[in-house]
User: What shape does this take?
Amino acid sequence: MDTQHTNARPHAPSRNDWKKRSSRPRTAAACGGVVHDNTRHTTRFTVIGNHLAQHPELSLLAIGLGVHIQSLPGGASVDIRSLAARFPEGTTRIAGALRELEAHGYLRRTRERTKDGRVVTRTVSCNQPGRADAPEEPKPRRPARRESAPGPRLLPAVPQPAYPVPDLLATALGVLSGLRRTDPRLLISATDAEHLVPGVAAWLERDVTPEAVHRALTTGLPSEPLHRPAALLAHRLAAQFPPLPPFRAPGAPSVLHPLQNCDVCDRAHRAPEPGTCGACRT
Assistant: This one.
C-alpha cells in the first residue's frame, strides 16, 4: 500500500480548474456592494423615478424632500412652516431644498390672491420634469409697448440669485413696489422693475428680510430730485450686497417666519401670522 506524504506540495492547477473558478458569478456581497432584500408592495407605496432618487445635482436633502412631497396625497400642506414642523432640518435648509427642486422642475410654485385678499402659494409637484404633455402654467400677458416710446437707458448691473424661483421673484417685486410708499420719488417703471427684481431676490436669498432690503434702499437718500431712481437703486443693490449668511448647525435652526403681505400697505414682510408690518404698526 502506498504511503501518503502530507508535506508534499500540491499539484499546480490545470487550465480547466482556472476556467471553473473564473466562471463562478461574483456576488454583490463579495464585492462589498449593497444587497437588496426586496418585497413587492401591494398597498401604501409610491412610484419614484430614478431621475429623482439618483439625481446627480440635487442635494440629499432635496432628493429626500422631493420623494416625501411626491408621496403625499393631493391637498397636503407642503409650505415651509408645515415641512419644518415635520422635519428637524429647519426652515432655512428646507427653503433651500425647495428652491433646488423648483430649479430642476420638480416643483412649480405661484403666488395667488384669494377672494378674501390673502396671498397664498400654489404648489404643483411634478414626478417627471420636462414631460412633453405637461400642462403649461398660465403666464400673465405683458402690456404692449408703444412704438413711439423711447428705449430704456442702461442701468448698472445688479446681483443675480442662484435659484430665481417665482415665489422669490414675486416677493422681490413686492419690495420694489412698496418703495414709493416711503418716498414717492422711488416710483419706477415696469421695465426698470424687471431689471431690479433679480437684485432684490439675490438679497433675499442671503437671509435678508424684505424689511431690511426696504430700509437699505430708502435710508439716506439725497434731498435733491432723483432723475434716475432706478439707477440709484441698482447701484445700492450692487454696492451694498450682503455676504453669505453664516453656517448654522443642523441641531439648532433659527426661527424664520414665513412671508406675509401687510394688510395696510400690501408690502411683503416676515411674521408668524398675517397682519400689518412693523412700519404700519408704528
